[in-house]
Amino acid sequence: MSVSHAPPDTSLPPPLPPSLERVVPLGSRRSWSPRWLRRAWGPVLLLVAWQVASATGVLRPDTLGSPGAMAATARDLLADGTLPSAMLVSVRRVAVGLLVGVVAGTGLALVSGLSRLGEDLLDATVQMLRSIPWVGAIPLFIIWLGIGEAPKIALIALGVAFHLYLNVYAGIRGVDPQLVEAGDSLGLGRWGLVRHVVLPGALPGAMTGLRYALATAWLALVFGEQINADDGIGFLMNQAREFLRTDVIVVCLVVYAVLGLVADFIVRSLERLLLQWRPTFTGQ
Amino acid sequence: MATDLHGPVTPSAGTGPAAVRVSGLTRSFGDRAVIDHLELSMGQGEFVALLGRSGCGKSTLLRVLAGLDREIAGEVFVPRRRAVAFQAPRLMPWKRVWRNVLLGLPGRPDRARAEEALREVGLGHRTDAWPATLSGGEAQRASLARALVRAPDLLLLDEPFGALDALTRITAQRLVAELWQRRGCAVLLVTHDVEEALLLADRVLVMDRGMIAYERTVGLERPRDLAGPGFAALRAELLGRLGVEGAVSGARDTPETDGGPPRQPASATPEANGGLIRPTASDTPETADGPRAAPVSA
Question: Which residues pair with B211 in a beta bridge?
Answer without folding.
Answer: B208
